[in-house]
């Protein structure tokens, strides 16, 4: 009995280690290419958000998008956000990471300020700094 319990414990440790290693890769799975640094966007305008997968990355991208559908979230982050920080404003919860672009009409309710656009649900990649006026 103790041998099988010990085996299960080792297997669980290996799975956790493998998952952690996957999420701690040295390169992000994708990079947001637009909008570019210091883009100024007026409320009510539509901005194109684009991203590019890192060469060699394959789905599923755990922590960023749903495994079976590639659905994920886009939101606004503070300029100094970490990759697992919560969004200050959720823009859309139903985009497909596989589309590699998204047209966003900036809501009139979004406070004027400096942000980064983030894509992902647990972890996210973020854009260059943008300014909403």
TrEMBL record:
Q: Where is the signal peptide?
A: 1-21
What UniProt keywords are attached to this protein's entry?
Signal
What is the protein name stated in its UniProt record?
Uncharacterized protein
Instruction: Give the source species.
Output: Absidia glauca
């Amino acid at each position: 009995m103790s041998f099988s319990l010990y085996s299960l414990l080792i297997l669980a440790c290996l799975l956790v280690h493998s998952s952690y290693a996957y999420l701690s890769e040295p390169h992000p799975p994708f990079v947001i290419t637009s909008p570019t640094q210091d883009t100024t966007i007026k409320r009510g305008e539509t901005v194109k958000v684009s991203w590019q997968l890192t060469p060699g990355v394959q789905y599923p991208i755990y922590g960023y998008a749903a495994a079976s559908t590639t659905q994920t979230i886009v939101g606004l982050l503070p300029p100094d956000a970490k990759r697992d920080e919560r969004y200050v404003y959720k823009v859309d919860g139903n985009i497909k990471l596989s589309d590699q672009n998204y047209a966003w009409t900036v809501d009139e309710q979004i406070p004027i300020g400096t942000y980064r656009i983030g894509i992902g649900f647990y972890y996210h990649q973020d854009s260059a700094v943008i300014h909403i006026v």
